[in-house]
Structures are given as structure tokens and as C-alpha cells.
Design brief:
The structure holds two protein chains of two kinds.
Chain A lengths: L2 H16 L3 H20 L6 H23 L4 H7 L6 H13 L2 H33 L11
Helix pairs in contact in A: 1-2, 2-3, 2-4, 3-4, 3-6, 5-6
Chain B lengths: L5 H13 L2 H32 L8
Helix pairs in contact in B: 1-2
Classes of the chains: A mainly alpha, B mainly alpha.
């Protein structure tokens, strides 16, 4: 139940590593909590990659909206928000199984890792497209421009 | 970044989708080599422990 909060705390620590300010770090942490909540409570229909796709889509849409209101590129929030979702350990287990000579386990883990990474990338691309349609490559206008 | 190349492999696929094939290939190779290096290091530690274990007595 508290897992999205933990994801937010982890992402706030990573935001310090990325050099974000405290407002941007808080926004990215909220995006990570949203993505993890979607990932956790979305029904796993066929594969893990399915819910990862919708989690990345939700985090990407949140990042697009934040980038419009904060007048910064959406990648600032996207990269920090998908930190809890990325399959880094899967890549390591793939190579460990390869070194142990367990080819079947290696191929199994490798395909699962690659599918998860593809799902995240396609979810972020879809969020980018939706943000481009909604905001049209513009940020929120400054007060002097009105 | 962290040792595990999670963000690197995701960024590689994002670059490849966006059409930047050289950047995607370079980032993918980086992720692959990082994963290979991590597993080689931990596998080497496991193999070394298999050799060293008799010297630590029965408790280890």
C-alpha cells in the first residue's frame, strides 16, 4: 500500500543525483509515485510488460503536463520518473545466466528485460505524441507575453 | 549512474525509435558491456569464494 511513497522517496534521492532543484525533484517524485501506483494496481493481463507500458504512459503524461507548466523539457521529469520501472537487474541476471552456461534461463530473462524496456520506451513515445498534440510544442506563456 | 544499466537500455531504445540510430547503438552497446562487466565481476567473486572457502573453516 505504501509502495508508491517508497518509489517517490527513491526518486527524490535520484533527482539529487541528476541535479534537479527541489521543486522539480518533488514533481518528478510525484510522477514516479503515479507510475508505480499504475504498475502495481493495473491488472496483469498477459505479461509484466503490459502494466509497465501503462505505467510509463501515465508517468510520461504527468511529465508532459509538468513540462508545460514549468517551461522545461519533458525529459527532465521523464528520466527521473521511470527510475523505479527500468529493468536494470534483468540485464544483470541475463548476463549472469549466460556466464553460468544456463542458456534457457538467459534467453528467458533477456526477452523479458527487452520487452520491458521496449514497453517503457513506447509508453514515453506515446506520451510525447499526446503532449505534442495537446500543447503543440509550446510552454505556458510568460505573463509579459499575454 | 548506478551500476545496473536500466536507464541506459531504455534510452537506447528511445533513441532508436526517434531515428538516432548511431546514438541508440552506442548506448545499447554501453548497457550491454556494463551488464557483462557486472556479471563477470560477481561471477569472479563467486569462483574465488569457491576456492577460498576451505580456508575459512566449517562455519563459513
Amino acid at each position: 500500500m505504501l509502495a508508491p511513497l517508497y518509489a517517490a522517496i527513491a526518486t527524490s534521492a535520484f533527482s539529487i543525483l541528476f541535479g534537479l532543484g527541489w521543486i522539480d525533484a518533488s514533481i518528478a517524485s510525484c510522477g514516479a509515485a503515479l507510475g508505480w501506483a499504475v504498475y502495481q494496481w493495473f491488472p496483469a493481463l498477459h505479461a509484466e510488460a503490459f502494466s509497465v507500458f501503462f505505467a510509463a504512459l501515465a508517468a510520461g503524461l504527468f511529465s508532459e503536463i509538468a513540462s508545460y507548466f514549468r517551461r522545461k523539457p519533458a525529459t527532465v521529469y521523464m528520466i527521473a520518473s521511470i527510475i523505479p520501472l527500468v529493468p536494470g537487474g534483468g540485464m544483470y541476471y541475463t548476463m549472469l545466466s549466460t556466464l553460468e552456461g544456463n542458456t534457457a534461463k538467459s534467453v528467458d530473462t533477456g526477452i523479458a528485460t527487452l520487452m520491458t524496456a521496449f514497453s517503457i520506451a513506447i509508453g514515453l513515445a506515446g506520451a510525447n505524441v499526446i503532449g505534442r498534440i495537446a500543447f503543440g510544442n509550446r510552454y505556458r506563456p510568460l505573463r509579459s507575453q499575454k | 549512474m548506478l551500476l545496473v544499466p536500466g536507464v541506459a537500455i531504455t534510452n537506447a531504445i528511445r533513441d532508436t525509435i526517434a531515428g538516432d540510430f548511431v546514438a541508440g547503438l552506442a548506448r545499447g552497446a554501453e548497457a550491454f558491456l556494463a551488464a557483462a562487466a557486472i556479471s563477470a565481476g560477481t561471477g569472479g567473486a563467486f569462483a574465488l569464494w569457491q576456492i577460498l572457502q576451505p580456508f575459512f573453516g566449517k562455519g563459513a
